[in-house]
Amino acid sequence: MGRYIAAIDQGTTSSRCILFDEQGPVAQAQKEHKQHFPRPGWVEHDPMEIWQRTQEVVSGALLRAGARPGEVAALGITNQRETCVLWNRRTGKPLANAIVWQDTRTKDFCDALAADGGQDRFRAKVGLPLATYFSGPKLRWLLDHTPGARDAAEAGDALFGTIDSWLIWNLTGGPVGGAHVTDVTNASRTMLMNLKTLAWDEEMLEVMGIPEKILPRIVCSIDPASWGRTQDNGPFEDAVPVCGCLGDQQAALVGQTCFAPGESKNTYGTGCFMLLNTGTEPVVSRSGLLTTVGYQIAGQPAVYALEGSVAIAGALVQWLRDNLNLISSSSDIEPLARSVADNGGVYIVPAFSGLFAPYWRSDARGIVAGLTAYANKAHLARAVLEATAFQTRDVLDAMRKDSGVVPKALRVDGGMAVNDLLMQFQSDVLEIPVIRPAVTETTALGAAYAAGLAVGFWSGLDHLRQAWREDKSWRPEMSDATRERYLTEWRKAVERSMNWV
Hints:
Helix content is about 35%, strand content about 20%. It has 16 helices and 22 strands. The strands form seven sheets. The chain has a seven-stranded mixed sheet. The chain has a five-stranded mixed sheet with strand order 3-2-1-5-13, with helices on both faces. Strands 4-7 form a two-stranded antiparallel sheet. Helix 12 packs across helix 13.
């Protein structure tokens, strides 16, 4: 058995590779890739740039660890989930740029499908509302608007996949025998997979106008029968089994060891994503949440989760930095926000491309509400942080309604989880403890856990639970009256962001 497990974490703004041993992270490398905005509401990535950056960060992490051939026991992948790629199976070249999960170009198609049966027309089958977020409608758009794409698909020359499929295919040989697979968690975000059968659904493919032959094979997230081994034309010098794969938020659920029903985690990244483990039966949401696959170990039933997706969290901090130039780096926001006692009555609803859970309003747009002459940039900074906490409260309320479960605590991770001011405010508005783990890179950790479990690097789920360590926790300190005032004003601001488009 090798000394390390490698995890590739391919995110919305960057790619990174982290090498883990049994104790935790050993070495990592990270590189950003370019965001393309060809039209308002459109967001694209260059798949070739993502593949290039992925190779660079793997090489960088191996170099920093001084890892020699044979020392990496397995490779796990985690990825930005609904971002999708269509490529030529013979040349390995993309037929177009990847359409990113935030992209809203499929609104008309989604609205047309919702005209007959409503936004929840397919929810019982796929767990998702009709929304621009998911990758099935994006694939339909690519087939309809990319010159030659539909013909290539019908001829068997085109392959489709979310970013996990694109990377696994390239890592395991590309045009020369690359494995064309996706795991159940990523497949559950396409609107094309039946949640109960865990297979591509014939009705959904027909409704979306998608030929099944271009779709990847659906596999378990944790699979001892690896889907292939890395080839020497990539970043690894030796054949490393690729046997763990999870969409980024499900990877964080595994990385936080939320293996029991009722356990929950929240990841604060570009967006913000809360998942609640609901066990081996899918819970259909009536409160605007998503029903998704949490993970599946080969030979065992799938474990499901309820998810609340907030589109803009860390991206709002970047907006404050890059668009308004009020801070020079993201870490400046906490001291600036701490320089005032409260938000000064200012609320920011960051509906830049509509509101996600639990509202699902693509007609909403971002607003700043409650401005007076008293407000300054520190109040804006505080409102930016609080927006993430308020949106998380909206999601938690919906989870309580759907599942009847009140989480005893919330495990947190992601870039914004290092912000102590935000974490205290989060605990205050949720009215439950918030717990940060010692390893906050839980997305990559979950991918490592998946691959490591598959090859026996870790012996089982109990082994992982024992390895998990707390770094810091926060308890609610806010008075009920103050909390209620905050939430009432937040809800007024959310209402005013709607019906804008």
